[in-house]
């Protein structure tokens, strides 16, 4: 699944409908539920056969870890909505639906904005990323966040598929693209195409959002003054369904995006504030962060607004 239209991220935010399991909104005493430590954001399009198996794997991998699962259905035309509604009755899962397909990056943006966790883990919805790797990435991010001067609050932990289970055309094209990208952008990341990544939610919201941005997260994080570390992760063959995009299409679009991000890197960087003084700043309005998602909340199972 790839971003396909201009300003898709903005359109997706306007056109998303939220579906939430009531159990994720309140605790047993009727008060607001405590925010989870990690939100697993999964963008999907026409992945109906993979929904329930992948949700079960995520639940098993994060047993004992406060978490939520946020699926973003990017305009599926198969049984994905029905499978998501079924999964939401069995797990701490919420899902959003784009009225029309806006692309993978737009789906990730919608999911992160709707998420409540301090950390975000992203993975592809085709089952090729292994949810069992999430705890190791989370531990790495937590350790960095707790380390003095480690910049852990701005650390991206990126998965590196050392043994890819893809067709030879995908492997070769990705290898070439990674080398060209690393040379041009200097992001020192061997596998930016891996969907399994973990980062602080606040860090992602501080980045520029545009079509296909998910391919360039390491470069964008470095531009924002953050850090990137790559960790080897498992990669599995696709067992169900079919890929929703072609290798040549992805490669052609990626070339244009690459030069666009290189141009962005050469623009002025944001200043880093070293010290401040004077009166205390005004408190943030209640719910300001949560409302940044701009997503209308509707009852679980409701149909998208027409």
TrEMBL record:
Keywords: Cell membrane, Glycosyltransferase, Lipopolysaccharide biosynthesis, Membrane, Transferase, Transmembrane, Transmembrane helix. Residues 1-34, 274-306 are annotated as: Disordered. It comes from the Bacteria. One of its GO terms (cellular component) is plasma membrane. Residues 12-28 have a biased composition (Basic and acidic residues). GO terms for biological process: lipopolysaccharide biosynthetic process. It is an enzyme of class 2 (transferase). Residues 39-204 form the Glycosyltransferase 2-like domain. Its EC number is 2.4.-.-. Gene3D superfamilies: Spore Coat Polysaccharide Biosynthesis Protein SpsA, Chain A (3.90.550.10). GO terms for molecular function: undecaprenyl-phosphate 4-deoxy-4-formamido-L-arabinose transferase activity. This is Glycosyltransferase. It comes from Roseomonas acroporae. The lineage of its organism: Bacteria, Pseudomonadati, Pseudomonadota, Alphaproteobacteria, Acetobacterales.
